[in-house]
Every structure is written in structure tokens, then in C-alpha cells.
Design goal:
This protein is mostly helical. The protein has a single domain, classed as Growth Hormone, Chain: A (Up-down Bundle). It is 75% helix and 0% strand. It is built from 13 helices and no strands. α3 packs antiparallel against α12. The radius of gyration is 20 Å and the shape is globular.
Length: 398
């Protein structure tokens, strides 16, 4: 089917569903399932953090592998196969019964989700740009929030029907598996080429890109504690326990429109200043998650988390692609690796600190500090150009 006959909205919707399945479900369904799973298996917070770190280690390995120039074959086939692998590893969590198997499955799921993000973003964003519709990338990235909302609804519904944590994993995993052929239909092969285009020239790691990579590392370090343990944190507050499902739902609902809102701001002030503001807002949400004693405060904290982490992901990729020349897939993978390296470290350490202090307060304050530093570093990612020539989404090729 020639690419000209494919409506851009169809491609963007395919990207949305792919990210909803691989990221919103494959990565983030662990958060609402974790409390029941930990209680039934008597997992410590350190063990729970280790499982999160295994997924993030897989995410790092997947991102590095996706960056290899020697990786052959159609990017579309890679991301569809990875989407299926993410779903299968999620389903198998329902059948596992020991920490070692959980670690392996979460690692495999992390590898698969990184491949989906890198290759789906490459396929979808490149084709949308070629069609002159790069702004539809907002719909593509909204899939992460949509997947979080879906996972929250599915886990809540399964619990209402009497399912335990194994039933939760089975329901969300089967949902992700059904999404794979749907994405295959919405994102058909590009008739112009069945193989990825050559990416000529070396990727130049100048000051702006190095600063962006460092900020992305701190982003991974700073956001992941709250993203992993938010429901656990809420469950640990007696006055908020009844609202734990709703709080996670707020994260997803806030994430869905957030890319469009923050991208709109970036068109006025530039991507880099917008990134800096988003880092500060996320830091406030991380702190708010542990200091708020009311449902209203917890909702605000959840909204700040959900309303920033996806836009930061999207805007960071947009900015990096604008600095990459022809090496767009490599720079997306490099950014994903930097983020993954930071996010691997935090959950296990945060869980261990929580076991020692019986609180996530200290890990959360440390995470907020990392995000604040990321806000400062990101300002150095603005290339020295003439006034008014900032990095904008339209110029990013995204």
C-alpha cells in the first residue's frame, strides 16, 4: 500500500495503541498490581524495587541493541514482534511464582518495550513528518497515558470480580496481546522501502546533546521511584488507602493530553525551556506524593507526575532528533539508554531505604533533587543560535 494512501491519523492511532500496550501496560501496570502481589508473596520493598530495576535494565539493554547499526530488517517488523513479546512476558507474570522468574520476565518485558518505543517512534514519527503532519506525534505519545488509564481500569475491574494479582497480570497481558494485530493493520508496510534507510555520517555529541543526555539520565533517576511505588505509598497512608485506584487513574488521565499541552507551550517558548519547566513541575509532584495527607493533595501530586513524565519523554526525543542530523534512530536509542541507566538505579535503592526508614519520604526528596538538577542541565541543551531560532517541535522532524 503506497504511503500516500494512508491517512496520518491512522498512523498516529497505531502508534498510540502500540505505546499503550508496550509502555502503559507492559511497563506501568506493575505499579497498580504491586501492592497485592507484594502482600501475597511477602515481598520486601527492596525486592519490589529490584523487580522494577530488572524491567528498567531490560529497557536499557533494548535501547542499546536498537541503536546498533548492524541491526537489520524492517523497523516495522521489529516493533510489531517486540509488541507481541511485551504482551507475552506480561501474561507469563501470572504463571510465575518465584522472584528469579519474575526478574527474568520483567527484564524481557523491558527489552521489548524499549524496542517498541525506539522502532515505533522511528516508523511513526518519520512517516508523519514525511506527510507534513509532525504535530500528530502528540497523539502517538498519548498512548503511554492511555495505557496507564487502561491498566488502572482493568486492574480495578479484575479486583471487583474477585481476581487476585495473577488475574490482574493475565487480563492486562491479554489486552496487550490483542493490540498487536490491530497495530499491524493500522501501520502497514511503507511501500517506499522495506528496509531502514541508511543513516550516514557520525552522530556528533556536542554540548547541547550531552546536556540533554545528562538531563535525561537524571529524569530517569528522579521520576521512577514515584512511578513505581505511588500506589504503595498511597496504600501506606490510612486516610488515602481507599483512593489508591483513583490516584493511579489520575496519573494516566493527566498523561493523555499532556503532550499536546506542553508541546503547545514549547511552540511559544521553545522545547528546551519547556523541558526545564516540566522537570520542576514533576519534582513538585514527587515531593507532593509523600507530604500530602489529603486526597486532594494526592490528586494534585498524581496529576503533576502524569502530566509531566510523558511530555518530558516526548520533548526530549524531539529535541534530540533535531540535533541528530540523519542519525535519528540512533539518537532516540541513545536518549532511551541514558534514561534507562538512571532509572535502573533508583527503584532498588529507594526500596531499600524505605525498608530501613519505613517511609518513601527520603527517596522521594532525593528524586526531586535529581529532577531539579535536570531542569538546570536541560537549559544548556539549547544550541547557540540566533534569537528566535529555538528548537521547536516543527523543526525536530518528530
Amino acid at each position: 500500500m503506497p504511503v500516500q494512501t494512508i491517512h496520518p491519523l491512522r498512523l498516529a492511532t497505531g502508534g498510540l495503541i502500540a505505546l499503550a500496550a508496550a509502555m502503559g501496560i507492559g511497563r506501568f501496570s506493575y505499579t497498580p498490581i504491586l501492592p497485592a502481589m507484594a502482600a501475597d508473596l511477602a515481598l520486601t520493598q527492596a525486592q519490589a524495587g529490584l523487580l522494577a530495576s530488572a524491567n528498567l535494565l531490560g529497557y536499557l539493554v533494548g535501547a542499546l541493541a536498537a541503536a546498533l547499526p548492524a541491526l537489520r530488517g524492517s523497523p516495522r517488523l521489529w516493533f510489531l514482534a517486540s509488541l507481541a513479546a511485551s504482551a507475552v512476558s506480561t501474561i507469563l507474570m501470572a504463571a510465575a511464582g518465584d522472584v528469579a522468574t519474575f526478574l527474568l520476565l520483567r527484564f524481557v518485558g523491558g527489552v521489548a518495550s524499549a524496542f517498541v518505543l525506539v522502532f515505533a517512534s522511528s516508523v511513526i514519527l518519520d512517516r508523519l513528518a514525511a506527510m507534513g503532519r509532525p504535530t500528530l506525534s502528540c497523539l502517538h505519545f498519548a498512548g503511554i497515558g492511555a495505557g496507564i488509564v487502561l491498566s488502572a481500569l482493568l486492574v480495578n475491574a479484575a479486583g471487583a470480580l474477585g481476581a487476585d494479582w495473577r488475574g490482574d497480570w493475565l487480563v492486562v497481558g491479554l489486552t496487550a496481546l490483542v493490540a498487536t494485530p490491530v497495530v499491524g493493520v493500522l501501520v502497514p508496510p511503507d511501500a517506499r522501502s522495506s528496509a531502514p534507510a541508511a543513516e550516514r555520517g557520525a552522530l556528533r555529541l556536542g554540548r547541547p546533546l550531552v546536556a540533554l543526555l545528562a538531563a535525561y539520565f537524571l529524569f530517569g533517576l528522579g521520576y521512577v521511584t514515584t512511578a513505581t511505588f505511588l500506589v504503595t505509598i498511597i496504600r501506606g497512608m490510612p486516610d488515602l488507602r481507599s483512593a489508591e485506584s483513583a490516584i493511579w487513574l489520575v496519573v494516566g488521565l493527566s498523561a493523555m493530553p499532556s503532550v499536546a499541552l506542553w508541546t503547545g507551550l514549547s511552540r511559544r517558548i521553545g522545547v528546551v525551556p519547556t523541558l526545564s519547566l516540566a522537570f520542576v513541575a514533576e519534582a513538585a509532584g514527587v515531593v507532593g506524593s509523600v507530604v500530602s495527607g489529603s486526597v486532594g493533595g494526592a490528586v494534585v501530586a498524581a496529576a503533576l507526575l502524569g502530566g509531566t513524565f510523558v511530555p518530558i519523554t516526548a520533548l526530549g526525543i524531539m529535541a534530540a532528533r533535531s540535533l541528530a542530523g540523519t542519525r535519528r534512530r540512533q539518537v532516540v536509542a541513545l536518549m532511551t539508554s541514558s534514561f534507562g541507566l538512571g532509572s535502573i538505579i533508583a527503584p532498588t535503592i529507594a526500596g531499600a531505604i524505605a525498608d530501613l526508614t519505613s517511609s518513601f519520604a527520603l527517596p522521594s526528596f532525593l528524586a526531586a533533587g535529581a529532577l531539579t538538577l535536570a531542569a538546570l542541565l536541560s537549559l544548556a541543551a539549547e544550541p547557540r543560535r540566533s534569537c528566535g531560532d529555538r528548537i521547536l517541535p516543527q523543526a525536530s522532524g518528530a
